[in-house]
Amino acid sequence: MSTPTPVSSTVHRRVPLFKRLPVISHFNKSVGLQRTMLVIGLVLTGLFLLTAIFAPLVAPYGFAQLSDNDGSFPTQDPPGGKHLWGTTVGGYDVFSRVIWGSQTAIFVIVVAVVLSIFAGVILGLVSGYLGGWLDRILVVVADAIYAFPSLLVAIVMAIVISGGESNLFGGVLAAAISITVVFIPQYFRVIRAETIRLKAEPFVESAKVVGASNVRIMSRHIYRNATRTLPLIFTLNASEAILTLAGLGFLGFGIEPSSAAEWGFDLNKALADTTSGIWWTGVFPGLAIVWTVLGLTLVGESINDLNDPRLRGRKSAGGKGSGPDPTAVAQAALQAEVR
Amino acid sequence: MSIDIGSVSDRHEASGSPVLEIENLKVTFATDGGDVYAVKDVSLEVKAGEVLAIVGESGSGKTVTAKTILGLLPETATSGGAVLINGNNVISVSAAKLRQIRGRDVAMVFQEPSTALNPVFTVGWQIAEGIRAHAGGGQRVSAKEAKTRAIDALRKVGIPDPENRVNYYPHQFSGGQKQRVVIAAALALNPGLIVADEPTTALDVTVQAEILELLRDLRDKYGTAIVLITHNMGVVADLADRVVVMYQGDVVEEAPAKTLFAEPRQDYTKKLLAAVPHLGRNSASEGMTERAHQGGKVLVEAKDLTIEYPGRLGTPAFKAVDGVSFTVSEGEVFGLVGESGSGKTTIGRAIAGLNRTTGGSLNVLGYEMLNLKERTFKPLRKEIGFVFQDPAASFNPQLTIGDCVAEPLIIHTNPTPAQARKRVGELLESVQLPASYADRFPHELSGGQRQRASLARALILNPKLLIADEPTSALDVSVQAKVLELFKEIQLEFGFAALFISHDLAVVDMLSHWVGVLYKGKLVEQGIGHDVMGAPRHDYTKRLIASLPVPDPAEQAKRREDHRTLLGI
């Protein structure tokens, strides 16, 4: 036998909490191209997050600032000099607005995804576990929402919620809630499917035979096992949320430039510039959208591949294995068993 | 049963030359936790007309060895050494050559016949697939000829009316017949070697006996060499000529079957053989002449119990349990045996309130289950413990063992965390697990340890009744022996009544005072354990007991003769 002597303490050792967190655990088990993809995604997303957090420090001007001590900003000024990425037709500094825009984006993502996760998870658990007429109605409603084009739903919701107002809070909330409505069916479906699968698992039945109540079974046994795919949907939906927000802004249902910076709105205003050869007003907000969506999608897709043992790449066998030898652990357990 | 001998052209003579030689085989898997050495250094050979059994417990590397013979290892595996089939080294040959070898020189019979066959093609098509793939010299085999040969192959394995049934789809066959079809597909090209990976594990004992008979005929009539992978020592005793015992990727012992069972040399083999339950030995009801524990209260009473599963639209309901009557008294262990589909699990689940009864009467601890209301039944749940079949699935993977074991206590008595912890510790000690295991997660325990923890969970409220549904069938034999031993001790110590459900007659006999035999939803026989096993009265029970292979080649040969007479062959 060439395996190292089994050490019983290896069975005890628990991986520290931070190593079990979603993205970090995925990073640790990735290799090769998958790791490269994940790293690129993480870097892009990380820069986006840092920009959003430190926007007040990075941005030279406010998002609604039209003048400084030297007087009003020039309009349609090409990149360079005092205005790094130029200025728009209204006299806004493009660089500052792109930086501030990341804050709006993150705000909308967080509100939208948090709201839809809460509603989607609770509805999915209840609907999947209890079944019956409640389940049927919820599934029909979810399907009905699917049947609408998501942007159309978002527009209707934006009108209903904000009623045309467009201050920061109202605008962001309108965008976030309209995205929420579109996303709830997705979370609902995923959690419901998992719940229905888990409901038939022996550990749920073993909780039933000891007399556990429905609420206890749902919260303690199913919830924790059903939500393991959420980090994946979260990242993929976050990028979709940005696109929906940009789409809303582009169509004019976004946030007024005086309330907050918003990439989709800026793109809309840049439409007229393109024909006159003014590229900087459109390219930079557009790139910001691409950057963020690409980063989040790369992270999401990598997590998806890494979660699936069949898609996950591994270090080839025969190399020097690091860490505890699992056969040794299994052997230790087996020997303890036979004795 | 008998087999028509078709015209066999290239019959392999039992010349004694090896058809398969494995030299210093090593297989390593790359996993998340580093490399796993599944097979470390295995050398063996199989001669024509010989049945070589590779036995071992889970994780011993027996299946990996079998898969290497056909070059079926996944991409994550790397193998070294040599596997020679008729002079070709399977490990190093090209993919095209390997394809030629498969089917022509070596074929495989899989464990689960219902998944080994493609449900959307007829069985004839599936058998012909191999024949057409191996048409020699660039010629095509005509559809007609392929079909004729498929019919021949079906006839060889004893499928009645092969001309018609060649056009049947897999779902039109029973489990045993499906396995015959799989064997027919393996035989279609007359390979010299068949690798059978647990060919009877998914089948009931009565069907298992028929398949073993068929495999023995193949060896005797066609000189086919068989590599039989199994964990069932009874099957080994019944069929094997030579046995290789594997443990953790290494060959521990190799000997002719008779020698191995009579005088095993290695300690591991001795331990393994000692752990195998043997029908008629170690019976719990040894020396009893009348039913025990009848003075106590009757805990479960079924009268003409009927349980139906609703059919699909237009089909009648399926009667899983049909007019069954029995009682379980305080302190008694009632063993329920039956094959798959006999309704034994349904009865167990109905007593625990997991299934609804549809007719007759089922009285559990004074509660009539016919009109079960969860709210009124809940207080009684603390008197009933339940041990599930698969210990890996019956624990919530997100909770620690301590949380899982304490759950019934928390639900019913609302203890302080310290009290709960103390009680969990006591229970774990009494199932012979260290109290420190309470902090571990289920996946950190071995199968046997998990099943002990599962017993602890069932017993934490001191229930009057314990229902154990196949509690050891997912475990290895040596682990099973320990768990059964423990179960017996704990039953004596705690004195609970138990309904012990199993398909394994020997296991039921080891534990139960009173045994009921279920067949197609009906209770065909019940009586004192050793009476039922020793002198069965009902025809089905007789057949069931006769088909059970015992781990002793000499005794098994005698039993096989008896079995044949019983079936009138």
Jot down its keywords.
heterodimer; A: 339 residues; mainly alpha; MetI-like fold; two-stranded antiparallel sheet; 2 strands; disordered N terminus; B: 569 residues; alpha/beta; Rossmann fold; 6-stranded mixed β-sheet; 21 helices; 20 strands; 24% strand; globular
Please provide a written account of the structure.
The complex is a heterodimer of chains A (339) and B (569). Chain A is an all-alpha fold and 339 residues long. Helix content of chain A is 69%, strand content 1%. Chain A has a single domain (24-314, 327-338), classed as MetI-like (MetI-like fold, Orthogonal Bundle). Chain A is globular. Mean pLDDT of chain A is 77; it is low at 1-13 and 318-339. Chain B is α/β, with parallel strands linked by helices. In chain B, 38% of the residues lie in helices and 24% in strands. Chain B is built from 21 helices and 20 strands. A 6-stranded mixed beta sheet of chain B has the order 6-7-8-3-9-10, with helices on both faces. In chain B, strands 16-17-18-13-19-20 form a 6-stranded mixed beta sheet, with helices on both faces. The chains are: A mainly alpha (339), B alpha/beta (569).
